[in-house]
Amino acid sequence: MNAFLHLTPHCRSPTVLISFQMQLISEMEVRTMTDKEDKTVRQFVLFCRTALMYEKKNYYNEQKHRAERETHIETLTPRQSGMFEKIFDTYHADYFSVMGYEIGIVDGDLAQALMELSDKYLQIVLLYYIVGLNDREIGEIYGTGRTTICDQRNNAIKKLRLLMEEMRHGK
Prior knowledge:
Elements lengths: L2 E2 L9 H13 L4 E2 L2 H35 L8 H12 L4 E5 L2 E5 L2 H8 L3 H13 L3 H8 L3 H25 L1
Antiparallel strand pairs: 1-2, 3-4
């Protein structure tokens, strides 16, 4: 025979919680479940256990398959690790200097379009999208307001979009 008790304390203080629990125990009303409720609870518990068991199996199978497919980088031979250097050296990047940051742009079309922007527009776009500064912070650097920087950034993006479309349709 199963019994359950509904506790709903509203206070999280340990002393108040203990006194609340003591009061509940003294006034406790135990209700026995009917056979139908007991069966429903048992079915739910069985369902939860089964679901957790299969989730555990799936997790371990996934870990096993991942271990078969992946290799830790420290276990690679010098020849295998040398292949990575060849892969990463093939990329060509155009570098822009912004407030002491060296920013490499791998996409050639984007780099070419950025080169055609005015210096201030280029700085604003890179500071916002690459460095991660917001308009207020960029405005403090240039000594202008947030809305001015926002307008200039939007104008720069419009110009970039036009330049990129011209390059795409021109090729």
